[in-house]
Structure formats: C-alpha cells, structure tokens
Amino acid sequence: MIRVGINGYGNLGRGAELALSQLEDMECVVVFTRRDPGKVTTLGAPVAHVDEMAEYVGKLDVVLNCGGSATDLRTQGPQVAKLFNTVDSFDTHAKIPEHFEALDAAAEEAGTLALISAGWDPGLFSIMRVLGEAVLPSGSTTTFWGPGVSQGHSDAVRRVEGVADARQYTVPVEETVQAVKNGENVELSPRTMHERVCYVVADEGADLERIEREIVEMPNYFADYDTAVNFVSAEELAREHGGIPHGGQVIRAGQTDDGIDSAITYQLQLGSNPEFTGSVLVAAGRAVARMAARGQTGAVTLFDVTLTDLSPKSAAQLRKNYL
Amino acid sequence: MIRVGINGYGNLGRGAELALSQLEDMECVVVFTRRDPGKVTTLGAPVAHVDEMAEYVGKLDVVLNCGGSATDLRTQGPQVAKLFNTVDSFDTHAKIPEHFEALDAAAEEAGTLALISAGWDPGLFSIMRVLGEAVLPSGSTTTFWGPGVSQGHSDAVRRVEGVADARQYTVPVEETVQAVKNGENVELSPRTMHERVCYVVADEGADLERIEREIVEMPNYFADYDTAVNFVSAEELAREHGGIPHGGQVIRAGQTDDGIDSAITYQLQLGSNPEFTGSVLVAAGRAVARMAARGQTGAVTLFDVTLTDLSPKSAAQLRKNYL
C-alpha cells in the first residue's frame, strides 16, 4: 500500500482524495492544511496542520502538493521535498526550469524524489507533444483548449461594473481544429483558434449594452477573440454552469513521406478539471513512490516516468493484457 | 549518431528507412535481406545479406527487425538479439508473453536489450490503454480500428471466385464511437463497432450477385459485420485505393466522481500504415540504443521506456519547451 499525504485542500486536494478513494494500492493517510484542521471536512482522510508535517516522516511514501497557486507551490516545493517525495502541478510555464532546479537541489540534498508539473497541461498534453514529435518527426504540433471553464477569464468578467456573477467558457473553433488535423496551412491566431463564451448575471438595472461592450473589448482577455456574451439569471447560472469542465486536444499533423499525411489527436473531455488533475497527480504519486523506493533522487517530470511505474498492474499483466 | 540496421526490407523496412532519412541523430547503416542484396533497391542505405549480419557487430547500436510475419519475428528475434540490441513489431497477441520470454533469455545471455511489440497497435495504442486506466481508474477502455485497409480481409475477398482484385476498408461505426465517448451503455459487438467496405474488381462476365453474396456471408471475415460491396474497374482501384492508410482510436471513458464523466480519446489517422509503423520502430530504436548504452539488458516493451529516451531532445530542452 502506497501511503499518500495531500498538502492543501482546495478543489485539487479534494480531487486527489477522491481519486485515492477509488484505488486499492494507494491510501490517503493525511491531509495537511494551513487552516484550522478541525474546520476542514474531507471525504474521510484525517486532517493535520501543515506545521505538524515533520511528524509524518517515515509514515508517507509521497506527498501531493496541491497548493492553490504557483506561489504556494514554489515556496512549499523545496520545503516539503526536504521531508518527503513529492508531486506537484506547477504550471507557470516560464518558471518551470527554475522550479525544477530548486526542487532538484532540495530533493538531492534530502535524498528524496520530486516530480513537477503533473496534471493534464502541463502533464498528459506535454507527454503527447513529445510523443507526437518522436513518432512523426516531420510535422507540427498544435494545442487547442476547451470546451471548458477558464477561471481567470470568469474572474475578469466579474470585475466589470454591473456584473454580479459570470462564467466564461473557452471553446476551440471546430473549423480550425479540422484544418489542423487535415494538415492544411491554416492561420493560427487567438481568434482563429478559440472563441470565448460568457454567461453573465447582471445587477438589477445595469446597462447590459455597456457590460457587453466592456467585456468584448477587454484587452488581453477578450479583444483578440470572438466573444459571445449571454445574460442569464443567477438561478440559470447555478443550474447550468455550476461545474468546472475543461479539456482540449493536442494534434500532431505531419507527413511520413511526400504527400503522405498523418494526424495524431489526443483529446480530453473532462467533467471536472480539478478532479481529473487530482487523479493524474495520484498516478504520478504512484510512480514517484516506486522510483524513490528504487533509490532515485532529485527532480523529475512525467517525461522521466515509465508507464509500468504509472500503472497499478504488474509488468507481466501489462504485457499480457494491454499490449 | 545512433547507428541503425534494418533487418528485412518489405513495406515496413522501407518505412523505417524513410523515417531514419528525416532524422539528424540516427542513421541507417545497413539493410539486411534474405534476398540477393544486388537486387534490393533501398532509398540509399547499403544492403547486405542476413548471413553477413555477424560482421556488423560493433558497428550497429540497434537492429530493427522488420520481418514480414509473426513467424519471421519469432525465429529471427532470439537469433538477432544474440548479436545486437533489437526492436520488433511483434503483434500476435496470444504469443506476446512467450515471445517476451524467448527474447529476454537470449538478450540477457548476450548482454543486449530487446524491445518487442512496438508500432501503433501494439505500441502507441497499448501505451494509451495503460495511461488511460492509470489516470482515470474508474471506467472502461475501447479500441476502434480504421478507417483503414485490412490486408487480411482484402486477401479474403481476392480468394472469392471471379474476383480479380480487391481492397477492404475497416470503418468504425461513428454512432458507436460517439456513444462510447459519451459514456453511454452501448452494445459493443463486431457489427455495432465496425463496418466493412469492399472495392472489388470482378473478372469479365463474373456473376456479381454471387460474388457479393459470398463476400457478405463469409464466416469470421464478414458475416458478423455490415458489409458493403462496391464493384469498380481495375483502373479505379489502382487510382483511388492504391494507398495503405489505417488508424483508429483508443477511448477511455469513465468518471472522476458519481455523475462526473470524462473521456480520453487518442486517434491516429495514418496515410501509410507501414511508413508510420516504421517511424515508431525508429523512435523505439533510439530509446533502446540509449537504454542499452546505460547497461540495461533483457527484453522490454514501450511500457518500460520514458519519453525522454524516445525523444531526440535533451531532458532540459523537453522541460523548457514541451511541458
């Protein structure tokens, strides 16, 4: 049984606990929180304060760092890696090499193993970008996101005056997706790749035309996209748009010979972004626990992990039933 | 530079040479053939007789066994593994554990590394079956094949009296594919999953109704499927159906929580089945050469290979640009 600690209990930590509850080879031993442990209600796992973490050394095979922000993960990462093998979902692209170096130094010194940037993007989509290029060297790789909820864009809409609540979906432009799969030389710009669809609850008496104009013209967030604004009631928003779905697809399109086209598409359609991300962190945790048990130390990514280590099945079972 | 030998020069061997010609970190040093080397025309690689293989020890980092049949690969496998690190595309499902054991014994004794069952199925699809289950443990995995040419079924049609030539396409039933992605409880039988579409050139004066009846009623090959028979001219067959496209998709559909559905789809659309398979063998060859250089011996599968070993890029490049 692989003994797992979850560090941080927001949507992602809860998703990881949910994933662990479905497994027979891994168990959630403890959830660490910065809040008052008595006030955190888990799905069943015991709760401890982060300050008690050191008391769990020797009792956990891996800790999943489920901090809510990139800042959390950057500060927590090296600290936790001094005590435990770790997994995180660090996704601030430009800072990945720096984060890797910090974790590598801390983990090497402590003799632990730290896997960074697990999840679906970065994570599974990263795997597909590398795999696609390895098996189809002449071609190009394109990533589309959605349909799914973007928290950052939803927050941006909520900041518009007169908006009581809002939800923003990022939606890939199907025409462009098809053109990319067909290997057509299509323009790839924000507007040709993704549409933005907003569901907005306005304050009573608010000027709806102004709200719509302010949204669609908002720089960075919406101005470079075709944006649809739909005004709905608070009840409809809660009823129809209460989930946190997401997904996307990575397409590798290329040629094995002149005029011989191939396309590789990896698509995710996720009912709950944090639940699925939590589930990927758990699978990565399994691999980290096994690799660490074989003596591996330092920082790694999913690029350094084999399928055999990710799977609960034995190598012989995998060969017999999955090849 | 990773030095590669190709053993066997049919469609697959040619596909592997074509893939190698697009790479900067690998080169095709020699093609081995059972035929008269003077009569084999490659894309540029030197040709030697298989009996001369031992002379190449020390000159090749990996040999890609591109034998045309499962029988070839079973007999060649252990012999070649005594001399070189190897990769094959062994795909007789029931015999995989046995083939693995034979290669493992031969390779361990010789101190070489042998990777079996590379390609797309087995191969990339196998990876997706394991990965899908690891990251979405509660669910089911379904594989659809096509649209693509099935050589076995094309041959079966050609054996019908009065058929001069034929090409058979396996086509997934789109309605069933969608139902599986949606997590619906749909019946999965030969008929609900795949259709068979035949293009047939009949001998002059042949009884077309009888030919069609014999095809659609043929046990094992067609009787369990909805089969369409289209009679065409030899010219049309050559013009419209001369390629060897194939592909398919692996779908993992499941739930991260009660009522929260997720679907993971990996789809291949391949202009040339043997060219793409050859390209996968080459990527596997890169990994084998690197793993063997680190001292690994015995038999492995793609389940035991990291993305870092499959890719021509360095680990730091991958972290910086692909995560």
TrEMBL record, chains A, B:
Catalytic class of the enzyme: oxidoreductase
Keyword flag Amino-acid biosynthesis: yes
SUPFAM superfamilies: Glyceraldehyde-3-phosphate dehydrogenase-like, C-terminal domain (SSF55347), NAD(P)-binding Rossmann-fold domains (SSF51735)
Keywords, in A-Z order: Amino-acid biosynthesis, Diaminopimelate biosynthesis, Lysine biosynthesis, NADP, Oxidoreductase
Entry GO MF terms: diaminopimelate dehydrogenase activity
Pfam family membership, one: DAPDH_C
EC number: 1.4.1.16
The reaction(s) this protein catalyses: meso-2,6-diaminopimelate + NADP(+) + H2O = (S)-2-amino-6-oxoheptanedioate + NH4(+) + NADPH + H(+)
Residue ranges occupied by any Meso-diaminopimelate D-dehydrogenase C-terminal domain in the UniProt entry: 119-272
Keyword NADP: yes
Pathway assigned in UniProt: Amino-acid biosynthesis; L-lysine biosynthesis via DAP pathway; DL-2,6-diaminopimelate from (S)-tetrahydrodipicolinate: step 1/1
Family affiliation: Belongs to the diaminopimelate dehydrogenase family.
Assembly, per entry: Homodimer.
Protein name in the entry: Meso-diaminopimelate D-dehydrogenase
Species of provenance: Trueperella bonasi
